[in-house]
Every structure is written in C-alpha cells, then in structure tokens.
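Researcher: Let's try something more involved. This one mixes different molecule types, so please make sure each is placed in the same coordinate frame as the others.
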Amino acid sequence: MTHASTLTEKILARASGRDRVVPGDELWAVADRMIMNDSSGPRRLGRLVEELGGVLDPEKVVIVSDHFVPAATLRHAEILRETRRFAGAHGIRNFFEYRGILHNLVIAHGLVSPGKLLVGADSHTVTAGALGAVAVAVGSTELATIVASGEIWLRVPETIRVDLDGALPGLCDVRDVTMRLLGDLGTEHALYRAIEWGGRWINEASIEDRLVLANQGIEMGAKNAIVEPTGILPQAMRDAGLPVIEHEFLVADPDARYSERHRYDVSTLEPLVAVHPSPDEVVAARALEPTPVDMAWIGSCAGGRLADLHAAAEILRGKKARVTMLVTPATQDIYLAAASDGTLATLAAAGATVLPPGCGACAGVHNGVQGAGDRVIATATRNFPGRMGSREAEVYIGSPYTVAASAVAGRIIDPREVAEHGARRDA
Amino acid sequence: MKSRMEGCAWVFGRRVTTDDILPGRYLDRSNDEVGAFAMSGIDSEFAKKVQKGDFIVAGPNFGAGSGRESAPYALLHAGVAAIVAPSFGRIFFRNCINLGLPPVIVPDVAGIEQGHALIADLEARRVVDRATGAEYPIQNLTGISLSIIQAGGIVPFTRRRLEEKRART
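Model: All components are placed in one shared frame. Result:
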C-alpha cells in the first residue's frame, strides 16, 4: 500500500497533525486563516464569537466589507458600521473596506500561501486555492465557532484531477476553460470532492488565471479547488511582493489516488457562453441563437481582475458599447492600475460606466441589479435565477472578451467577429 | 434534538439553489427575520403554508450556490424539521448540520409525493413514507456530523468542547 497523497490530503494531514489522511476520514484541523465579509461576518457571527469567549487569534482573522459598499440603504450603512466596530473591538488588523472583494484581497495581500488551510464564510472562499492552499467555505455560525476555537471539523474529500495542456487561442480566456469544464461535468459533478488543477498550462498560468480556476470550482460543487503551486508561481508571487516560503509549497504525489482524472488541451477551446439559468448550460458563442442584451457587465471576484479590464479594453478600444456597459474592478488596486495605464479611459470612452470596487451586481444587492425582463451578459461568478436581481432577469456568462464584444454588438456574439470587423475598419 | 421526527412532505425538484431558498434581496435581513421568506424564490406562499415539523423533500443538489447561511435559517425559522434529498450543495449541507437542521441523504426520493406523512428516524437510520409504507435508508449523519446535530448544532457543541478543553488545561 502506497502512502501517496493528493495535494488536498497532504494539507489536511498537516493541518490535523497526522502523517496521512484518506478520503472519508473525519478530523479536526487547525485553520491557518479565517475570512469573512460584511454580509456573512460580524453582523451574523459577532455576538456568537463573543459568547464563545472571543477571538482566539486576531492575526488569523480577515474581515472585508465588499457586499454593501458603498452603502445604498440605511441598513447597509448599519451593517458596515457594525463590521467596522467588531474589527476594531477585537484587534483585527486585516480589516478592509472600500478596498475591494475579500477573495481578491486575500490573495493580493499575501493572506493565503501554499500549503495553508483557510476557511471562510462565503462560497467563493475556494478562490484562495489559487495559491496551492486548501480553502473551504463554511457558514457564519460555524465560522464563529472556528474563530473562537481555532479548529474546524472536516471530512477528507476525494479528489478530481484536471490537467491542462496547450496554449489558449486568441480572444479566449481562462473563463472559457472553466466554462468548458462546467459544460462537460455540470454543477453537481464535484459535490463533496476536491478539484486539483495541474499540468503544463498551469505551470505558466498567472496568479490571476489560477484565481479563476479555483474560484469556479464551487460552481462544479467542489468542497475545495486547489491549483498546484508549480511553475512560475513562486516568481509570480515574488513579483507581486508576496512572501514565498518554498518549504511550505506542497504538491501532489505522482501516484496519488484520484477519484477521476481529466485532461484538456486548451488550444482546442473557443469563446463560450453559459446560458441562463445555469453555469453548466454552456454553448459556443458563435452557435448561440440571436440573443439581444440590455446590459454588459465586467465584474465579480472571478471577472473583475485587471486581466478582465484589459481584455474588455482590447475589444472596446475605438468602439462604442451599444448597450449599457458597467465595469466593477474587483479591488481598489486594480482600479488604480487600470486608471494609471489608460484602461479606464478606454472603457469610459466606449461608453462604459466604471463603478466602485466590490462584489457589485454579482451578489444581487446593488450597483447594477437586474429587473424582470432584463437580459445581461456578464463575467459574474454564476447565473442561477435571481442571482443578479429579479428571477425574471436572464444572466448569461462569458469571458471579458465575449462580454465586451456583446456590448458593442448589442447581442451576444463571438468576440472574434467584433475583432475581425474592427481589424477591417482599421485597415 | 429528537432523533425521531414526523411531518408532511413538501416536494421540490432538482438543484433548488440558495437563491431560490432565500433570494439575495433579503441578504440585509437578520437571521431571525428570514423565516417569512423561506423558499420565496420559487414559492412565495411556502412560509405561510408550511407547518412546524414538516419536511422538505427535494431532488439532487438541494441548496446549491451561494453559501448564505440565511437560507437554512429561513427554513429552520419557517418550521422545517428536516430536508430529505439525494444530495445537497456542500456549504448548505454543512450549514444545516451546524444549525441542527438534519440534511438527510436518501438515494432516491421519487416515490415520495407532496403531502405524504413521513417519519425520519436518525437512530434507526431510515425515512418511512407512511402513505406508501416505503422505507428509505439514510446514507449519512454518522460520526461528528451526527454528534453536532444531536447536540443541537455547532454552537452548543463547541461550547461543550471549549469547556472540556479549558477543564483539561
């Protein structure tokens, strides 16, 4: 019998003080980081934490107000105030508001690193798996118990391994990769299981692209999604000013046991769209029947990255959006970078409205929510009915290229069509 | 909590999401307020019709999507005693255990119809449909998760654990 382990098994073994764990083991693990937002955080768990004896280690806790900033209602303002009060009262230094989305900030500020166990109250907590950590979402009540006790109970999941090879074609994005997988496997396929991303394409993948791979694991139902911290990652982390502790970097054993394996050559991909009302109803953008839209939106933890803004600007440069176009940078730093390099000017010149950093319309709270009958194409994280507002609104998901091209066309379109027209006009 | 529960079935289809169970527009409400909006994404009358102790019976992946804890709170405060389904959205599933609302996995719920009287017995590990006499074996709720449900949820469970830990040190 071998002792080979998947990456998730290795990290859970370390965090629970065991030599080895196998799928199905139930264990108590020490969490290295505990993250929450203004919706899931102090307003729901503050009193419980205090009842259970307070915050065990404030250095491990991260709180970000990202759902309700800027306040659109008095209630939002009260929630933001309570969030701020709790962070101050408990000495939590890693508290951010008006800085952007929790999941993006955790990565950008080095609050997760390879080999760690992170837990958080928000489904997209899985995003932190981008840096080779196990990142697991829990509810607010449970997070209160973890913040007070330092420990979480976990069942060791089986792991699905996905290897990516090849080079992405032009005007395709990592989002086309995750949509292909969602289309092939569905939203329930990975329930209770881990997804482990690896392969040659991953070796060269940026932190931003790894973030999307991890983030979209939750839409496949996964407990956690983890990207092997291989290839350029250590250098990319250094370049981003993040601490690199190489002996903590864990990778899967070559003969680890997986519940299944998938291999994709990303060079065969083309621009895809997830059709309302599910992230796994995926079709080629070029094959979609004529679908006019009322709005195009670039934003969310998976779709408001600097790379997304750059991709949108690449399409929109010198063109006009025919429909409402909103852009929500995921973080203030992304906003600043896009302002400094001219991207925001390009987007604004094309008619886009640039909104404050945060979750924005993706959470269906404010800043671009959709009414009955509205149809939007967006880089949102998911498109279940009612996700971005009314249940009678339709949300289609595309890469930033596809979203921007659709804004220009006024209907959902393969971005290669708009780019070709642009090239001809420019010539 | 009681290990044996009796109630009527409210039947729903596959992949009912947390946006269906509690739409995002109620995210700014407190946990105590959301019972009145339970299932309002698909049935705005559900909270009025459901009786305390009733069961939800649903298709695969019940509670998919957003991890909002207000979704299981909505069901709990609306009076739902247990949810029976072949599979659950993982975070929702965990939230239910942690709130002491049993998420009961049985492989096939197709025979259970709207309004059937059900018995769920966590110790005998079965759900019985009194209308048909059919028995459904419970596939989950052992070990730590059963202990948490029996303690009434993760909060009383943790309180006891912390007390034991402090007593030892």
